[in-house]
Amino acid sequence: MRRFARVALLCLGCAVCSLLYGLGQLALSLEQEPGGGGRQRQARDPATPGARRRAGSAGRGEAATGRCKNLSVSFWNSYWMLPSDVCGMNCFWEAAFRYDYMKTHPSEKMHLAVVACGERLEETVTMLRSAIIFSIKPLHFHIFAEDQLHESFKDILDEFPYEGKVNYTLYPITFPSESAAEWKKLFKPCASQRLFLPLILKNVDSLLYVDTDILFLRPVDDIWSFLSKFNSTQIAAMAPEHEEPRIGWYNRFARHPYYGVTGINSGVMLMNMTRIRRKYFKNDMTPVRLQWGEILMPLLKKYKLNITWGDQDLLNIMFFHNPESLYVFPCQWNYRPDHCIYGSNCKAAEEEGIFILHGNRGVYHDDKQPTFRAVYEAIKNYSFGDDLMHSLLQPLEQELQKTTHTYCGRVYKVFIKQLTKSIRDLYARRSKGR
């Protein structure tokens, strides 16, 4: 019996060694496969020299060396595929723990991107102000703007009281040279720039993209935390286009595939860009799966006569074919006029308030929806350092009470419910020295 036990123990040891060797070889082979990603020269962010000088370290990516130690750079995925320039076998072993690590150790810096063209300077600055007021972790703004807007952005942003928590980088509007004209005229000028962010910001792991007409009524940290809720297949998060199918646009009028019952709205889009760059997407153009940079132009060529809302429609088509890749967050994270002009239909906002206000259709600048305009004007006119209760919340509530003749005004309390909580939480953090 004793001899039998020794033989069994020896066999078990040999089996373990063989398994370890096999796994090691598998890791090395995955690095060389197309899915593992070959070594590519990192593109430099196209920031202007002046913007680099003012932003300090803004616009610079994570260091290329030692990335195994920074587990926030890459996420584990179900295929165990990591970029070949991350590291070798060690990353293979660490990848198994990376997914759980990210759930408890989110990135310390939050990256927020916006695209501004035409008369959107003031609107963009107001959005950035709302992000700064309540956010806790450091912010890095990636601002894509027409060249004539760069100096104005610099002049305004350099006067913001950053307190060491905010950096920014300015970028020109850029599209692939061979198809730039088509992308520029898609929907609105510059709107489709967002589709190319994963290809331009190659050193950014995760990013929150927002339209210029967004206002944050609670910390950016809270929507950023959805990254830790992604499962192993999800690469992005957006909210539904509508809550009520009877007034939905996609389910009534769309001439192309769209996600879910009512489609998705891309005005607030949280992206794990490492996963986006790595993923091979199913599509209805070829049986071969295509990567992000390969699928955009063929998709536009096939559907350009059938799409109405430009890049948002293309995103709907992509996630229709890859529904497992999308995380859907509730409507109060992207609250638009459609949620109240036909009667209140965002139940989550009624219960908890509005978290992110989206003033599409130009409602911040006309008198059609005075409730939305009142919130915009309150944040635009707020001076950093003033008492938020007396300088922002109380005057805003007085203005909102004047809008009760409108459908949105009848539920005006949902516009300040979360804002009130955000202000109280901010003062509580300050009292504790945080």
From TrEMBL:
Is Oxidoreductase among this UniProt entry's keywords? no
Swiss-Prot/TrEMBL keywords:
Glycoprotein, Glycosyltransferase, Membrane, Signal, Signal-anchor, Transferase, Transmembrane, Transmembrane helix
Top enzyme category: transferase
- Give the GO cellular component terms, alphabetically: membrane
Q: What is its EC number?
A: 2.4.2.42
Q: Where is this region: Disordered?
A: 33-63
Signal peptide range: 1-24
Q: Quote the InterPro entries the UniProt record gives.
A: Glyco_trans_8 (IPR002495), Glycosyltransferase_8 (IPR051993), Nucleotide-diphossugar_trans (IPR029044)
The name on file for this protein is Glucoside xylosyltransferase 1
* Gene that this sequence comes from: Gxylt1
